[in-house]
Design a protein that fits this description.
The protein has one domain: Tetracycline Repressor, domain 2, CATH 1.10.357.140. Helices cover 73% and strands 0% of the residues. It is built from 15 helices and no strands. The chain is globular and about 50 Å long.
Length: 319
Amino acid sequence: MATAASTGTSPAPAVRPSRLQTYLELVRFSHTIFALPFAVMAALIAIRWGGDPALDWTSPVGAIRGTLGILLCMVTARTAAMAFNRLVDRTIDAANPRTAARHLPRGDVSVGEVLLLVVVSSAAFIASTLLFLPNWLPLVLSVPVLAWLLGYSYAKRFTALAHLWLGAALGFAPVAAWIALRGQTLAHDPADVLPAAILGLAVMLWVAGFDIIYACQDATFDAAHGLQSIPARLGVPRALRLAKWLHVATIFLLAALPLAVPQLGWIYWIALAAIVALLVWEHALVKADDLSRVNQAFFSANALIGLVLLAAIAADLWL
């Protein structure tokens, strides 16, 4: 077989990713799919209930403004949090064989670039709450929410409950979308947030469960380097059992959602059955003595869960 050397030709140069592509890979932009559907489904319920009186959803301008505000807040807050995580964890990532090829340890981006990305994304998040959302609550809450999101990066240095911290960070998505669209109503009736609170708690436990599964890959490394995680603290077998129970609790919470949103009907229940099947499949893929399919469980099953639930809620509420 002829090779480049034998034919006297030079091998084709490797295609270097664009700077934008590098930044998107740095913050795992594709993982936005985990939280974004829950923000959208909370927004759909809020709009179905009338939305915020200050936002005219019957006009194209009002609908575009509110939708754009929610999307911008989600994307910019998540980008700031992920970039900050990569920045804070760069020395840990460099020491861990599983993460040593990430962009900062590999030198594909500089510390200054990532820090600038954190600052710009954080400013864009706060600006989005001011410019696109119709009530004052998102702006007031933007800094505390951002502090919680960025603070997660330090959590595993002092608590094994970092998985729940991450879960709460993603669980903010439906609650924040609800507050953005029904803030004025919420100010007079705090119980109005119940549907979003159920969704938010379900997201928190679901994310904490699959983050525990993912962290099983680093149980030995974390224990050796003094990092806190459930697998490092309890061992992989017990951690996987805890993840299962967290996902059982997630299903019970999602089953309670129709009590708060009576418009949800048979389409929602079919979707919930599908989600149960996806979670059973996820846990079947991962064994305490075989973690080779963790990535398949993490990405394939979890990416579908939010999309399935979003489609069902949209169908039940709007078709």
